[in-house]
Amino acid sequence: MSELAVRGTQTAVMISRCVRLSRRNVDALLTSLVLPVLLMLLFVYLFGGAIETGSAYVTYVVPGVLLLCAGFGAAGTAVSVTTDLTEGMIERLRTMDVGATSILAGHVVASVARNLVATTLVLAVAVAIGFRPAVAPLRWLAAAGLLVLFVLAVSWLSAAFGLLARTPEAASGYTFLVMFLPYPSSAFVPVETMPRWVRGFAEHQPVTPVIESLRGLLLDTPVGSAPAHALAWFLGILALGVVLSAVLFRRRVA
Fold first, then answer.
1. Spatial distance between the Cα atoms of 31 and 124, rounded to a whole number of angstroms
2. Suppose 194 and one of 96, 120, 163, 198 were both cysteines; which one would form an S-S bond, judging by CB atoms 3.0 to 4.6 Å apart?
3. Quick check: 2 pLDDT over 70?
4. What is the pLDDT of residues 55-78, one digit of tens each?
5. If we measure between CA atoms, which residue out of 28, 26, 24, 5 comes closest to residue 16?
6. Is the model's pLDDT at 165 over the cut of 60?
7. Where are the transmembrane segments (predicted)?
8. Which residues contact 163 (CB under 8 A, 6 or more apart)?
């Protein structure tokens, strides 16, 4: 069997392992599924009446909640990578000549799978409480593609955080920045309503162009240059995450 085929088989096995571990970790799974829904209901029913967005608040807030899902899923990636390190699992896998890429890809793909389930649940609840997205299939596919790319990039970066941390608790703390980014953005209030110094950050951080792209695609409104900006951020974050993961893996496991 060729080296490429061996690595492909190893990656598939690692993905299967991480997905099974996600299913068994019921507490973490429920948190990643239920917490975004609770936050959406909190914003819509407690704050929605006080925030003017020009449309029903549930329509405005859903794209931001989808990005929150990605943040929670990414935190789980960092914690699971650190747990494997501290429990000696990665060392055992390395004795069987399982490659670093296969090990980390298992955690990253499991994160994407968790986020797809959480996103589906959030969208179902959003539709139940009044969200009415556009129905054009191409726009749905484009929105799904943006979400998957965002989760993929952030999950690789979180895998690097997991390799950097010494304990699962520290790994969860390192991902706070990822979970925090949707708040100072256009996720929950229009950027124009923010103070000038906050507005500058909100307009030029990774999450805002993703949210604006999702909002335009799901509601059938113009998206402008937002998808191009979002793609540039995706590629930058993904490259950073992959390179950092490779460097940190060699340092931690060598």
1. 17
2. 198
3. no
4. 788 889 988 888 887 777 777 888
5. 24
6. yes
7. 26-48, 60-82, 103-129, 141-164, 171-191, 230-249
8. 81, 82, 85, 244, 245, 248, 249, 252
Range of weakest confidence among 96-100, 129-133, 158-162, 179-183: 96-100
What are the sequence ranges of the domains in the chain?
3-253
Q: How far is Cα 99 from Cα 104, in angstroms, rounded to an integer?
A: 9
Q: Is 52 left (phi over 0), alpha (psi -120 to 50) or beta?
A: beta
CA distance 122 to 130: 12
What distance in Å separates the CA atoms of residue 164 and residue 85, rounded to the nearest whole number?
A: 10
In the structure encoding, which two tokens stand for residue 191, read together? Answer: 């950027």
Rounded CA separation 40/54 (Å) = 18
What's the average model confidence in pLDDT over 159-183?
A: 85
Residues 207, 186: Cα–Cα separation, whole Å: 8
Query: Would you give the DSSP letter of residue 205?
Result: S
Whether residue 1 has pLDDT greater than 60: no
Residue that has been written with the tokens 């979180």 in this structure:
158
pTM of the predicted protein model:
0.88
